[in-house]
Amino acid sequence: MNPYEKLCNKDPRNPLFSDLYGYEDETPIPRGDCACDNCFYGRDAMALVILSYQEVLEGVYATPKGYQDVCWNLAADALGKPRPH
Ligand SMILES: [Zn+2]
Questions:
Q1: How many C-beta atoms lie closer than 10 Å to residue 37's C-beta?
Q2: 7 near 44, Cβ under 8 Å?
Q3: What's the rounded mean pLDDT across residues 36-50?
Q4: What's the 36 CA to ligand 1 centre distance in angstroms?
């Protein structure tokens, strides 16, 4: 499953975005009162959670060795828990 395909159709990260909106200068705003299939059925919310975890993992991977505090803070932010450091 490609989580980007489940994002709002008006989110530029969605692969369908350029097919639907790439010809206009104006960029639509994702979510809000959007009624595209992904938003209407709630697929957008799950995709955002998956992508937020992916961002955390990328942050952990990019953290230099010896900076565990940064990783803990990233994990705490993703989980909505207080930062340990
Ligand atoms: Zn939408």
A1: 11
A2: yes
A3: 88
A4: 4
